[in-house]
Hints:
The chain is α/β, with parallel strands linked by helices. The protein has helices at 14-22, 50-58, 87-95, 121-152, 156-173, 185-192, 220-232, 242-248, 253-263, 269-280, 305-312, 314-318, 328-334, 337-342, and strands at 3-7, 40-45, 63-64, 67-72, 99-105, 202-207, 237-240, 283-289, 294-300, 320-327, 347-349, 359-365. It has a six-stranded mixed sheet with strand order 2-4-1-5-6-7, sandwiched between helices. Strands 3-9-8 form a three-stranded mixed sheet, with helices on both faces. A three-stranded antiparallel sheet has the order 11-10-12.
Amino acid sequence: MLKAGIVGLPNVGKSTLFNAVTRTRKAQAANYPFCTIDPNVGVVTVPDSRLEVLSKIAKTQVIIPAAVEFVDIAGLVKGAAQGEGLGNKFLTHIKEVDAIVQVVRCFEDEDIHHVSGSVDPIRDIEIINTELVLSDLDAVQKRRDRLQKEVKRGDKEAAAEDAVLAKLEPHLNTGKPAITLALTPEEKVLMRTLWLMTAKPVIFACNVKESDLATADSNPYVMRVREYVKSHLSCEAVIISAQIESDLVDLTEAEAKEFLSALGVNESGVGSLIRATYHLLGLRTYFTAGEKEVRAWTIHEGDTAPKAAGVIHSDFERGFIKAETVAYTDLVNCGSVAAAREKGLYRMEGKEYVVKDGDVLLFKFNV
């Protein structure tokens, strides 16, 4: 299962958000730096309204959603790449995740200490990014040094890797994350083997106060973050209120809706964050739907039908014959598989078919 790491400066709401996302109280949330030392890990189901609709068509009450893993990583501080705080340990935890959710504080509160003494989300983003870039730069330089003997001997693989490193080093030296460097598909494959932190996809979670959630789009801090991450990092920012989300953990679904309605919002920000993170990881969903259950299966964007079948069982991929498929929207519009088949929307696909998000599939195989 792919992992998304929740990172940020101390006291920005990381552990509170982790508790909300995982609907647990596993992570200690306290008003002082480094209250989290060892990372907390939780499996999170991905909210998907399509499952409920499919369950009615399939006439089943058993629903199994997709899932992704979230990791609560302790706060980084300026100088982490040189070991400040517990920097080296925390940076190692970041290397082990597949994507990063960076929490940014976008609210004023005199009762909640800020490690830098004031609220400035752009400064906070740059502190975190600088530490990650410095750590990656050090790793790239050391790797280049180790490769030189093999390059001089004429090793083609070493030369190809060194060429990528030669592009990465000056790019990182300007303070830019590796993910923003223009590389060929082949070079990107080589870069992935380096496990660079700034090569991981990132989404920013703007943490606002409860009273600001309904008007968060006009929050000056949020507006600055959105503009900055779009222009400098080519990524997106979502709005959450970690404290509200944490309060919702103990409420029933009906109570949560009533609570959010009183605040002037329709949906929990955590749901949007989980879905955005799922897509950030390059994950997509297809469905199987029958009388026993309706289930969401996780695949990578671009996976073919046999690969998708293999997610259910390796025998399905090994003995793949064909996939019967219908798009979710077509099935819903028709109301049943039989009606979709009559209209020619239920079709057979072979080994080259690239599964699309929302496809409803039935595999035929022989082993």
